[in-house]
Amino acid sequence: MKISISAVIAIAFGGLVLAGYFIDVPRLALIRDVFLQYASILLGVALLVGLVNLFSVHWHKVTSSEKNYAYSTILLVAFVITILVAGFFGPTASWSLWIFEFIQVPVETSLMAILVVVLTFASIRLVRRRMNLFTLVFLGTALIVLIGSAPLFGVELPLLHGPSGLRALIAQIPAVAGARGLLLGVALGTIATGLRVLMGVDRPYEG
User: Fold this and answer.
1) Distance between CA 133 and CA 135 in Å, rounded?
2) What residue spans of the chain are helical by DSSP H?
3) What residues contact residue 188 under an 8 Å CB cut-off, 6+ apart?
4) Which of 66, 156, 173, 198 could form an SS bridge with 61, CB 3.0 to 4.6 Å?
5) DSSP letter string over 86-137?
6) Nearest CA-CA partner of 144 in 175, 112, 108
């Protein structure tokens, strides 16, 4: 198997960082911290490059009057205003927090509302196409959580609401267990991907 210089460099740096976590040598720990600081700087530069690319792509759409270029215009105006306000007044200033509270938060809330509608439609299709025990469990759990989160007509049911209700029980035990299972799966996948890169099997840095 032909190994390029970029693969050797990536494997060497990755091996040094990995060794810094498992081998108790002060110099290795120092090298690990320095490399991680450089990685943070590179991530910041990559974010700036991504922002410049986002701006250039939508600027091209506006200047060439492509389809739906009005949305690109709105994005560019909001992008420039946000950069100017946050850069001039600071990210924690009142104007910056106003943009976050009255623009960013409502947009995110609207997206969550759309997600609720999409999940409801998906649930209806699930009931129509595949009605079994697991479907009934899914629908029952969703109804319990929804009614427990927002009391129906302002009426709170002791069985559903409160710290010892069914909603709290579902949120604290099965939901947390499922979330931890997903996190474990993501962690194992990340470890497997990292090991493949360290062994030179996958080489995303070569394009």
Assistant:
1) 5
2) 5-22, 26-63, 69-89, 94-99, 105-129, 133-149, 166-172, 174-198
3) none
4) 66
5) HHHH-TTSHHHHHHIIIIIHHHHHHHHHHHHHHHHHHHHHHHHH--SHHHHH
6) 175
Computed from CA positions of residues 108, 113, 114, 118, in that sequence, does the dihedral angle turn out positive or negative? positive
| Tens of each residue's pLDDT in the chain, 207 residues | 566 777 788 888 888 888 888 888 888 899 999 999 999 999 999 999 999 999 999 999 999 988 888 999 999 999 999 999 998 998 888 999 999 999 989 999 999 889 888 888 888 888 888 888 888 888 888 877 777 776 666 666 667 766 677 778 888 888 889 899 999 999 999 888 888 877 777 777 665
Cα 44 to Cα 37: distance, rounded to the nearest angstrom = 11
Residue linked to tokens 């009931």: 127
- How crowded is residue 149: how many other Cβ atoms within 10 Å of its Cβ? 11
d(CA 57, CA 169): 48
Give the separation between CA 99 and CA 109, rounded to whole angstroms: 14
The residue count for the chain: 207
Q: At CA 129, angle to CA 126 and CA 130, rounded to 5?
A: 75
User: Rounded to whole angstroms, how far apart are CA atoms 23 and 19?
Assistant: 6
Q: Which two tokens stand for residue 2?
A: 């032909």
64 SS3 class: coil
